[in-house]
């Protein structure tokens, strides 16, 4: 038996697709917590750091270092999934401590240190090690950070609060590639300069988190007071048997294994249109601008009409993006439409998935549940990136993208059927 934020609604059983009650929509005025604002600014600085480096990584690997698309597929798989190694453990530690800021700070700090590795990486293995360290840091910080957002947010407007955070996050994600673009335009092969700037913004994000974000307590757990270490192990396995969370894990795995990394999509567009190398980072800008513009509106729609519905429907935009990337015709407008569809996909899924995981997880295991969903998503995307690199090598970029589009289109109805009955059983207060 547990009591969670959903108990504020009279102990009713809510499904993942159920719209919020009219009283929730009209009776509770949206108020943005300063904690979420500061966390958004931390993510803004950190995403300037990560996305400035990520925006040049595909060209750095395949052009400057001269590695193959299969090598890039492996590195992109690491980029997608190395964080999965630690997400559940980081969430569990956060829940045991009840102070997620400490865990999040460790993750942000590790990513900052990994940025130093990019300055000295000159081959596949050194670059893979730097990417792994950076992504492990992301895996450590993400679930505790999202637990802080959930704790500080109004439950009636949870997806909207995540939308605000993701909007700020993506202002940074759009700014980082602009910085990379300017550097490459002014300094040919100026990848080292991009990596120095990336390190500087990572340090700013760590400082902002350490100095400005309060150390909120989450859930009921405390390492020292509540639950001995041995007694906590069965609780973790019990969490995976939560009926709604189990369906969400299956859905995330199904859709994640058909989600190609952004870098591959941009390489397909670059190969088709053959635009100058220094324009490449602006592809990331287009995606992230659409993401930040749509994050709050789609979060509001998810709160009102059902988070599961919006999450699954967002993958239709991804199918359309794949089809435009695979199309034989190129030019400015098809490319812009492809970027807009990719941004809409992220706006409909990224923050909404975190809110959905929080909705379907007991309050005292909040970070663990969010981390579990993120782990399954990350691992499935590792498989997607690695397989797509091989598929590209065997069939060519356009054919590979078309194959993935058809498979994802077939998987969306199945995902909807699996997730539509996801629910959380809430005990009366």
TrEMBL record:
Subcellular location: Cell membrane
Signal sequence segment: none
Protein name: MFS transporter
Gene3D superfamilies per the UniProt record, alphabetical: MFS general substrate transporter like domains (1.20.1250.20)
Domain named Major facilitator superfamily (MFS) profile: residues: 33-423
Membrane topology, record value: Multi-pass membrane protein
UniProt keywords, alphabetically: Membrane, Transmembrane, Transmembrane helix
Pfam families: MFS_1
A cellular-component GO term for this protein: plasma membrane
């Amino acid at each position: 038996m547990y009591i969670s934020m959903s108990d504020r609604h009279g102990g009713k059983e809510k499904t993942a697709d159920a719209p919020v009650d009219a009283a929730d929509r009209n009776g509770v005025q949206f108020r943005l917590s300063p904690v979420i604002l500061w966390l958004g600014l931390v993510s803004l600085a950190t995403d300037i750091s990560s996305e400035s480096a990520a925006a040049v990584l595909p060209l750095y690997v395949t052009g400057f270092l001269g590695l193959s698309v299969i090598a890039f597929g492996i590195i992109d798989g690491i980029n997608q999934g190395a964080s999965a190694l630690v997400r559940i453990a980081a969430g569990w530690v956060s829940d045991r401590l009840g102070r997620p800021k400490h865990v999040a700070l460790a993750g942000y700090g590790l990513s900052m240190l990994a940025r130093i590795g990019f300055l000295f990486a000159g081959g596949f293995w050194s670059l893979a090690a730097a990417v792994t360290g950076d992504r492990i840091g992301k895996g450590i910080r993400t679930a505790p950070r999202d637990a802080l957002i959930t704790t500080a947010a109004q439950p009636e407007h949870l997806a909207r609060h995540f939308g605000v955070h993701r909007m700020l996050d993506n202002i940074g994600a759009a700014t980082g590639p602009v910085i990379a673009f300017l550097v490459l335009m002014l300094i040919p092969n100026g990848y080292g300069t991009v990596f120095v700037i990336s390190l500087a913004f990572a340090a700013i994000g760590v400082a902002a988190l350490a100095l400005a974000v309060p150390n909120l307590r989450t859930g009921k757990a405390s390492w020292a007071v509540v639950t001995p270490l041995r007694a906590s192990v069965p609780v973790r396995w019990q969490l995976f048997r939560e009926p709604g969370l189990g369906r969400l894990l299956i859905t995330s795995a199904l859709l994640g294994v058909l989600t190609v990394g952004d870098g591959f999509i941009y390489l397909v567009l670059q190969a088709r249109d053959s635009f100058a190398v220094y324009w490449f980072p602006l592809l990331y800008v287009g995606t992230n601008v659409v993401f930040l513009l749509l994050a709050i509106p789609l979060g509001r729609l998810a709160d009102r009409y059902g988070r599961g519905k919006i999450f699954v429907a967002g993958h239709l935009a991804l199918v359309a993006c794949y089809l435009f990337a695979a199309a034989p015709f190129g030019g400015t407008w098809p490319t812009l439409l492809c970027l807009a569809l990719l941004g809409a996909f992220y706006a409909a899924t990224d923050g909404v998935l975190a809110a959905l995981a929080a909705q379907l997880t007991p309050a005292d295991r909040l970070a663990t549940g969010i981390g579990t969903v993120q782990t399954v998503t990350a691992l499935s995307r590792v498989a997607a990136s690695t397989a797509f690199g091989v598929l590209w090598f065997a069939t060519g970029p356009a054919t590979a993208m078309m194959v993935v589009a058809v498979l994802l289109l077939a998987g969306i109805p199945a995902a909807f059927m699996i997730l539509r009955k996801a629910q959380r059983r809430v005990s009366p207060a």
